[in-house]
Amino acid sequence: xxxQAGHSSWDNINEIISKIIENARTESNATVMAxxxxxxxxxxxxxxxxxxxxxxxxxxxxxxxxxxxxxxxxFYRASRRQWDRHRRIAKPTFFIWLxxxxxxxxxxxxxxxxxPSMKG
Length: 120
Hints:
Layout: H1 9-40, H2 47-79, H3 83-119
């Protein structure tokens, strides 16, 4: 059967996704603190560059976690053929995804190309 009386498969999916989002938020907070501590150990990085890195990193992480429920909601509304409501959430979700994608590449470049070359 799809579920117990009064529970649909969407209720089960909602429960699973809410647990995933809760864990992701907890992990993102721990990750930000760990990354901040790890960059303090990189003494060869100028403080102004470390500040730029963290200014890019923190919104990247928060928006990456924050867009998870938006993606879920966009898919849910599309599956229910609620096209007007789907478009309202899909448009900002796309731009947040685009920002997270671009800043992800910048963070990767800083971590694996810029910072190691400065250590020399």
